[in-house]
Task: structure prediction
Amino acid sequence: MTSRRAAAALTLLLWAGGAAAHSPVPGVGHFYGGMLHPLVVPAHLIALAACGLWLGPRWPAMAPVLGGLLAALPLGMALA
Result:
C-alpha cells in the first residue's frame, strides 16, 4: 500500500504545470527582476534576513550544505 501512495504522490508532483510569476519591476528582464525582488517586496527581504540571522550562528555546521547547494545550482539551471 505504501508503494501505491508513493506512486500516486509522484504522479501528482510530475503532473503539475509550469509556474507563472510576475515581475515586481515592469520592463526589467527576468534576471534583474529576480535580483531586485527582495528590495521591492518587503516579505522577501524579511525572509532573507531571517534566514541569514538563523544560519549565521550555525555557519561552521552549514558550510558543507551551502557548498552542496552551490554545486547543484548550475545543474538546476541547466535542467530548467
User: Anything to note?
Assistant: Residues 20 and 30 are 12 Å apart (CA to CA). The longest helix spans residues 59-79. The chain has a mean pLDDT of 82.
